[in-house]
Amino acid sequence: MKRILTTALATLFAVTLLGQSPDDACLFSQTFYQGTAKAMGMGNALGAVGGDMTAVCINPAGMGIYRSDEVTATLNLLDNYQKSSYYGSDNDANKVRLSIPNIGWVHSKPRSNYKTVRFTQFGISLTRTNDYNKHTYAKGLNPISARANNGIVPNQLASIAPNDLPDDAWHMWQTYLIDDHFDSVYSYTSNVPQGNVWQANEEEFKGRSEEWSFTGSVNCAEKLFIGISLDITHFKRKGSRVYDESNQGASTDFVSWRSTEDISSSAIGFNAKVGLIYRANNWLRVGAAFHSPSFNAFDETRQTVTESQLVTTGHTTYTGQENSYEYTFISPLKCVGSLAFVIGERGMIALDAEYTNYGAARFVAAKNDDYDYTPTNDAIKSNYRRTFNFRLGSEWQLGRSYLRLGAGYYGSPFGLGQTGGSIKKASCGVSVPVSRHTTFDFAYELAYGQAFTYLYDAGDLDLKPVTYRQFKNNLMVTLKVKY
To answer: Could you give the 3-state DSSP secondary structure of residue 276?
Structure first.
């Protein structure tokens, strides 16, 4: 359990330092589809259902269900609310964002009612695959430890000259939070108290990951549907992490200090998907899909500014160098198995099971860059494991309208049987036709997750983690036009 906590549960809440980390690998590998309102209302359990632009991202064979042309556009309102608890202090923060998570177009061409191939389809869609908009805040009075003292463990820096200090310690040295002494070897002390300091950590990010899908499919005798898609992936994430400590009232030179890290990441990549849906009989459909690993070329910049306030030196600021990175990130493959049970003309119940191995993600140095990502990739393999995501959905006909219900459980990236970092979802939706060819779909989704994050490594001291609880409220409306 301690191993799980100390990896920071970056599924939702990452506290990283400089450069790429196993936490980033998990964050950029996870997929939480935000496409159409129909998909959200049914818990995204559409692998064997098809006939929807989000279903195409899960199983491209779902496009084979279309028998007419269609255009969709979706608007989404997200409220991401976070509540934290740290050493008995509770705090909260939230982030509200309006976005367009899906647009899509599909063209269906009839072939023959008598031959095996009945319809062929081609479509283009944009679907959001994850949302990075969040705001978290945690604060508490730590009685035993301080990052500017125990967190960098000054006595472990012995024999290291100031110019060779790690970035974190170098910033503290520049702002007088630690001081060096030379007596045949270097040693360091800190004027920050051993404990009884207020600690706060605030993160605010915006961004998203999404896919442009170019999909082709075929309807074989209304029995077998086959599809393939080539996808262009896009990542964009920008924000900051602010950590500060302040004196609780002890008689010392130390007043307060703060570290602000600004991070900006963007990437373009590609993957491919292939899938099929088999209609075994009038009441059962079986689906299967394979998602290849995604190859993403990242550009990233990070910069840290450290400020200190001491009685003797006053206010001091040190601005670190802006570090730029170029690297390739390869996310793990996914396999999806699906079932859909059709209940006459009244509705259907659908189930998806999705397998992935987060430990298979890895970083690769860019061309002409000799940086060695082996330690990072080994840490990814050690910390993260294979897991399953389960999605359940249903749709029930009410006259010309449809009522939809859904639920989902997204397994912990730390492996089967673990609960840290898992996500639970519940959703509902309704379809409202406004004409023969035009429909509005509405959906609401609530997602809940809990994580435990250590703000820094305090060595052997019994540092408590921050407990985060996340509640995501999603409201979505989709306009669908057939022609």
So the answer is: strand
